[in-house]
Amino acid sequence: MLSKYRLEEINSIEQEIYEGDVFDLEIKEDHSYAVNDNYIVHNCSDAAHGLGGHIISDGGCATVADFSKAFGAGADIVMSGSFFAAVDEADCEREVIDGKTYCYNYGMSSQTAQDKYGSGLKEYRSSEGRTVLIPATGPADAVIKDILGGIRSCCTYVGAISLKELPKRTTFIKVNNTHNTINESSTVGS
């Protein structure tokens, strides 16, 4: 169970610099992975865990379901800055448009972040990401509860009794239509 979200607790966590081994993963044509050109494996997370490493899902979460997909694929950590960029506790630049509050959201490799926190975008680099206005999302606690609820539902669907078991129970199937339009009719009762 997640305790009450406290910003001051998170801000007090000391950051450590990782000094362990870093491994390059290359995806081969047969969908196997080459790790540092030494190993050929068919499950990226098993290979990383076997070497004492961790898998980080590097952003891109657009829905709560994306967290379940990342953990189901074997990620240990899911980067999710955009989910928390517009919470009440976030230190974001806010703008009110037509009575609704929005926050500016940008990745730390974007032009905006490079200009704001660094010395601008270097000539040899490119901007990764964009700056967008996103609707304010309320308290962080509510966002966390949504994410945890989605992950719990996913575990129920696949029969996993823990997050650690989720990758062992998950099977990915390629589909071409994931949007259900049945409830989008504008006419009700006619």
Structure description:
With 190 residues, this protein is α+β, with helices and mostly antiparallel strands. It has a domain at 55-161. Helix content is 29%, strand content 15%. It is built from 7 helices and 8 strands, in the order αβββαβαβαββαβαα. It has helices at residues 7-11, 44-50, 64-72, 81-84, 111-117, 140-158, 166-169; strands spanning 25-27, 33-35, 39-41, 56-57, 77-78, 94-97, 100-106, 131-135. It has a 3-stranded antiparallel beta sheet with strand order 1-2-3, with helices on one face. β1 and β2 (33-35) form a beta hairpin. α3 (64-72) packs across α6. The longest helix is centred in the last third of the chain and has 19 residues, at 140-158. The chain is globular. 12% of the residues are buried.
Describe the secondary-structure layout.
Layout: H1 7-11, E1 25-27, E2 33-35, E3 39-41, H2 44-50, E4 56-57, H3 64-72, E5 77-78, H4 81-84, E6 94-97, E7 100-106, H5 111-117, E8 131-135, H6 140-158, H7 166-169
Parallel strand pairs: 4-5
Antiparallel strand pairs: 1-2, 2-3, 6-7, 7-8
Helix pairs in contact: 3-6
